[in-house]
Amino acid sequence: MDVIIDFISLVLKLAVPLTLAALAGTLSERSGVINIGLEGTMLMGAFFAAVGAGLSGNPWVGVLFALLIGVMMGLLHAFFCLTLHGHQVVIGVAVNLFATGITPLLTRLVWNREGASDTLPSIAAVSVPLLKDIPVIGKLFTNQPPFVFITLFIFIVLFIFMKRTKYGLRLRMIGDHPTGAQTQGINVKKYKYFAVMVSGSIAALGGAYLSIAHSNVFVLNMVAGRGFMGMAANIFGGWTIGGSALASLFFAAVQSTRYYLIGSPIPDQFVLMIPYVATLIILTAFSRNSRSPEGLGKI
Amino acid sequence: MEYAIEMRGITKRFGAVTANDNIDFLVKPQEIHCLLGENGSGKTTLMNILFGIYTMDEGQIKVNGQPVHIRSPRDASRLGIGMVHQHFMLFNQNTVLENIILGDERVPFFLDYEKSRKEVQSLLDRYEFHIDLDEKICNLSVGMKQRVEILKVLYRGAEIIIFDEPTSVLTPQESDILLGMIQNLREQGKTVVFISHKLGETMTIGDSMTVLRKGAAVANVLREETSVHDLARHMVGKEVETSLEREEVEPGECVFELADVPIWEHRKSCNLRVHEYEILGIAGVDGNGQMELEESIIGLRDHRQGHQYLLGEEITHEPTLLRKLKGMAHIPSDRHKYGILPNETLCRNYLLGNQEREEFKSHGLIRTQRLDRFSEEMIEKYNVYTSGIEQTSGSLSGGNQQKLVLSRELSQSPKFILAAQPTVGLDIGAIEFVHRTLLQKREEGCAILLISADLSEVMALSDRIAVMYEGEIVAVGDSSEFTRDELGLMMAGHLGGAS
Amino acid sequence: MSIKKFFRRFSFDSLASSLISLLLSFVIGGLLIWAIGTNPFQAYYLIGVGAVGTMKNLANTLASSIPLIFAGLAVAVSSKAGLLNLGVEGQLYMGAMAATLCGLYLPATNRFILLIAIMIASMLGGMLWALIPGVLKAKFGTHEVIVAIMLNYVAELFTTYLIIVPFREHGSTVNQTAEIPKAARLSKLFPRTQLTTAFILAVIVAIIVWFLLRRTTLGFKISAVGGNRDAARAGGINPTAYVIIAMLISGAIASFAGTTEVVGKYFRFRENFSPGFGFTGLAVAVLARNNPFGVIATSILFGGLSTGCLYMSRITGISGHMSNVIQSIIILLVSAPRLFEIIKGSRKRT
After folding, report:
1. Where does the pLDDT of residue B496 fall: very low under 50, low under 70, confident under 90, or very high at 90 and above?
2. pLDDT in tens, A207-256
3. Alpha carbon distance B53, B104 (integer Å)
4. Is B72 part of the contact surface with chain A (CB cutoff 8 Å)?
5. How confident is the model at residue C283 (pLDDT cuts 50, 70, 90)?
6. How far apart (Å, rounded) are the C-alpha atoms in residues B275 and B258?
7. Distance between CA atoms of B297 and B310, rounded to whole angstroms?
8. How much is the pLDDT for C349?
9. Is the pLDDT of residue C181 over 90?
10. What is the Rg, in whole angstroms, of the alpha carbon atoms belonging to chain C?
11. Which residues make beta-bridge pairs with B193?
């Protein structure tokens, strides 16, 4: 039993950044904006969370920093895609390149070191009162990073927002047919800006998790494709909030096998390859069934 | 006298083109006012200004006597103006109810489907509409989709409703129902602006008419004061020549045959034969399988059943390229989709479809000099208005793009021409040119299959006519055998002609 | 084609807007440098010295433009077919690995034949890796962007495995293969620089790409598919086939970005030797608007930027990654078509 609970615990920890990236991807793409810049946005989130935590000594200040930079990165992406009509994939690549360029530059500036930050104060794990006392599954609520609960909370909010509110309904419809929404007097651009900016802050939060919760140091390129994997999970999940979250959990479960293979005769590189290959296989096997927003990538 | 809509001195320019030139447009309350004009005469631009999609360069607008500034569809909506668009602005994956309430949900944050449903239902009752509010849009017929569009406008409490060419996508019978609904709206106190280029329906329904020609208002008349002939003269500026000159020629051998090909799955298979010296016209309302027929003949769809023959040879499974090399020409219904490479030069557009011909290719290289010479000849012969063969085809006007496609497709002395909607979106001069070219090719001995949603065009050009309805050929015969009414009924699925 | 016609085809407007974008990017980059406490004029001066200050620096600038030219051409060819090849990074690793193994294990009797074999192996490696996203897209409709990116990671890890386990140099503390024999190395154009004949190869490949796209029916079919897929189909061109062919060509060219680094610079396969040439190649292609000669010019610019930034970083406290930042700003500004309409529009109004 404990083995299973440990497994679930591990999956949840791995799922946090993926889920946040996938939810960010869904939000952005449902509004019709392709956002492969999420990878870079996560990196920026990880870095600025480190800066905030490092400077103030309080990791929650880092979270705040991450949210802010996420909104700014979203704004940047939205401005170049929506107002200046750039090619959305190209802009995404530029955002990623910018993040991989600016973070080492600033790392050197802030910590006067190459490659990584100093050790940072990180967010301590928490136990949920009452729930932690439940036999067996209580362990799931013991010593968990608060990010697990934050992610759950964001998921629930987004789920209700998309399904049950008028703004969610509008956003979904905008992604399918922006001109149609425009003729209904909806300010399409405003919604897209909103979606991309919120998407950015959620992705950055995922990055913050990596530097100040999952570990206690910012390392160059520490996002390592999780943003892209989140995008893949979003596609696999059929561009829905629920689907994205489930797909992320699935991806995380596959990734977790990696921890059980440490010390096995399989070479490290192949173990490290698992998440990428798994993403490839899953996407290939299931992409026929999913339907992308009809207005994706159009302005 | 207070007008419901009073637009005065409206001018709108797009670059060098003046789409609306000092137009006065006046609509009285509770009338059906028709706005008439050919494609490109500025009707849609004028209405888009009224609806807040475009901003005008000059002029002023009053609604119910009050001067207004309409900056967005939202403003228009607030003033009680609603628009039923020609191209439906509907969301295929959402339900009828969601489509109706979108943008006017009447809740602060959380949706309340029950309350919305009650409100919409009361509208349904009042105007006697019948529609399932929980059906997804993608499962509805065209007529039903249009009803959703009207409901959207009514739901927003519009008092002035603009219909943009509403009958262009409907069968004659569906059109009649729609016209009835529109009259009902007027009786309930609404003011209606009805945009059209069809004279018949205008005279049936309109209380008064404004006619636009080349961006200017050329007439503003009451129905009692005018006639179909008068309106036609205003619209085109000269007496319309109603008939094209066509030589009588005897059809020859069968050139193209379609045998037992199911155009729509689970429907009866289609059979067609087109002969030398003959135009076979396919009449039908848009969306009844014309697109599929076109794609099937050109080789873009592979059917498991049936056979196709060109000049006696079976071509059922031959790819597009071989069909073209064997003498098939294709004037596509959607030239932007199937006809041109918008970012390439005219030369390279002339190469499209001819890229494997010896004339333009040697050892894998393009014979540029020949291609340039050929392009220049074609531009000259078909009078394509362009700055030169290095211009991109995307920057040509619609009529010139069609001339480009026409000259390219007809240049390789085809035996069989598939001409699909060859005059859609063209001005009168270009339409005449296309018609004359097709007739000339017929006299030279080509077999021509003409697919057109414009019944008049089919009747004017064809030797024989086939009627298409829901993916099936429901009737074939000499064009003299059918009257216009009979064809209209068959296009609407009423078999056997007269009722 | 006559000179006159060449100039008619050539759009000065797009050249002008590219140049303005560049200038603007340098201004923004300068502001950034200033914001982190360095004098931007001094920084740019140092970048300039590092890039073209001496013959040796200039030669190294040209040398560092070589992989960028190949990567840029690879992206340009794929975008002509309407697909963005984001998998250049993986393709260049796979190609370079195939080439390295050829260099290590084929007999070095005839230098010419050996080099040809290396080039062919390289192309095959790159083509294989480029084929995967193309085929998955065609057969299963898989999202090609994500697939290509995942394949980049797989290629990087796979080649790392190869140089750590089966092909590791004996007794080396670094993860790398043994050196390839002299016969398998390209000759230097300038002594004591890294500029090799690979630069000439890059220019030749650019000319071939230009010729392919402008003058051959194959190139016409590729650009027809990229320009309007449906019209190409109706014109008798099979879009899937030509997208895959374009991807193969792109992969072959991409592989040279890695292979020329191996046979011209390191003489062995080193772990993670590419600092993201693939994505820089995208930037190059975007700035050059997919014009092969534009790719050469842009690559030299970017090459100069990176050698210059490296030089600057040794003197000031700014990291050499500054070149990535400036490059990303360049992509942003160049790929935003509306920017110049807005600039022009505001000029009209005032």
Report:
1. low
2. 999 999 999 999 999 998 899 989 989 988 889 999 999 999 988 998 88
3. 18
4. yes
5. confident
6. 12
7. 10
8. 40
9. no
10. 21
11. B33, B162
- Cα–Cα distance measured from residue C73 to residue C285, given in angstroms and rounded to the nearest whole number: 7
What phi and psi values does residue C81 have, to the nearest 5 degrees? -90, 5
Exposed, middle or buried by CB within 10 Å (0-12, 13-18, 19+), for A57? exposed
Give the three-state DSSP class for A128: coil
CATH 1.10.3470 fits domain A2-287 = yes
Per CB-CB distance under 8 Å, the chain B contacts of C235 are: 320, 324, 352-353, 355
SS (H, E, C) B229-269: HHHHHHHHCCCCCCCCCCCCCCCCCEEEEEEEECCCCCCCC
Q: What is the ipTM, given to two decimal places?
A: 0.88
Residue B34 has pLDDT above 70, yes or no: yes
C140 touching chain A per CB within 8 A: yes
Q: Which residues contact residue A86 at a Cβ distance below 8 angstroms, ignoring those fewer than 6 apart?
A: A80, C332, C335, C336, C337
- Model confidence pLDDT, tens digit, residues C18-35: 788 888 999 999 999 898
CB contact under 8 A, B320 and C231: no
The topology under which CATH files domain C55-332 is ABC transporter involved in vitamin B12 uptake, BtuC (1.10.3470)
Contact B196/B202 with Cβ under 8 angstroms?
A: yes
Show the low-confidence residues of chain A (pLDDT under 50). Answer: none
Q: What is the mean pLDDT of residues C244-255?
A: 94
Beta carbons of B338 and C217 less than 8 Å apart:
no
- What is the maximum span of chain C, computed from C-alpha positions, in angstroms? 72
Domain range list for chain C: 55-332
**Long-range CB contact pairs, A246-251, < 8 A, 24+:** A247/A22, A247/A282, A248/A15, A248/A18, A248/A19, A248/A21, A248/A22, A249/A11, A249/A15, A249/A19, A250/A282, A251/A15, A251/A18, A251/A275, A251/A278, A251/A279, A251/A282
Residues of chain B contacting residue C212, judged by C-beta atoms under 8 Å apart: none
List phi, psi (to 5°) of B232.
-60, -40
Q: How many CB pairs under 8 A join A and C?
A: 147
CA distances in angstroms from C327 to A2, A107, B387, C69, listed in the order given: 51, 19, 38, 15
The amino acid that residue A285 corresponds to is: A
> Structural domain boundaries of chain A?
2-287
Q: Which residue did the predictor score with more confidence, C124 or C287? A: C124
Residues facing residue C72 across a β-bridge: none
Domains of chain B: 5-236 (3.40.50.300), 243-327+414-499 (3.40.50.300), 339-408 (no CATH)
CA gap B407, C302 in Å, rounded: 46
| Residue C346 confidence (pLDDT) above 60 | no
Q: What are phi and psi of B388, to 5 degrees?
A: 150, 170
Q: What is the pTM of this model?
A: 0.85
- Residue B161's Cβ-side half-sphere holds a number of Cα atoms within 13 Å equal to 27
Contact B320 C234 (CB under 8 A): yes
